[in-house]
């Protein structure tokens, strides 16, 4: 089936995941409109145009919606900062306000041209468990700050069902990239010979290669999929296994005992929860829609990422903070 030419509006386009999605859009000759809270980051080219918005004030340049056929929402403050009371409020409000500002913008400009809307969500909604294997059908919510945030986030996403276009959520797991997210932070102590698993190391980590995740967003948009999908790879691993695979690809020994939970709580405070939470999550629903992962196993994903880093270290760049 021939794909129609798309013009996609992206929030969070300068973040880690957003930048990869923009790259795919350019490869497929799609036009990208992106929203930014920094007027200095506005670029205007034929296929890549920036527009200003301020979700906290419900401000948005309505010209961003001109000719748009799809919307990808990646907006949200990073969870990888110390969880003070004020920052926890920012994590929540950045997600809710972004969606509400988008919603009001679509309502003002009309949705006739828009065929699909997909928003980031997170697997942090699933209850912490060493034994469960979660699908999108799970209704229980993790009894934690993250569980509460994702539940409120998804409730806000659901308001877009008021419009006559497909609405989808992608619950993102641990995104593997050497340019940002958790992997460089996990690899740093291993490179310096002080790496170790966290706690028991038995907690499940549902990971996904950055390129596969970006492709999943494009797949959902292009096929106008509706509903919730887990944005994780096919084979989750334990923290112990992931740590060993990172050490293997970096050719470093693991000589220290596992890092105890109390120590990380002293260093990171409440945010340390994300290091020990266990969510083993299935991607079968996305695969059944016809999506194929390029990176099925964590060892292959890591080999690919670090081979690329060795070949082109100068291409590394700093991305804006986003939800990962």
From TrEMBL:
Residues 8-228 form the NAD-dependent epimerase/dehydratase domain. Residues 259-305 form the DUF1731 domain. Coiled coil: none annotated. It comes from the Bacteria. InterPro entries: DUF1731, Epimerase_deHydtase, NAD(P)-bd_dom_sf, SDR39U1. Pfam families: DUF1731, Epimerase. Belongs to the NAD(P)-dependent epimerase/dehydratase family. SDR39U1 subfamily. This is TIGR01777 family protein. It comes from Costertonia aggregata.
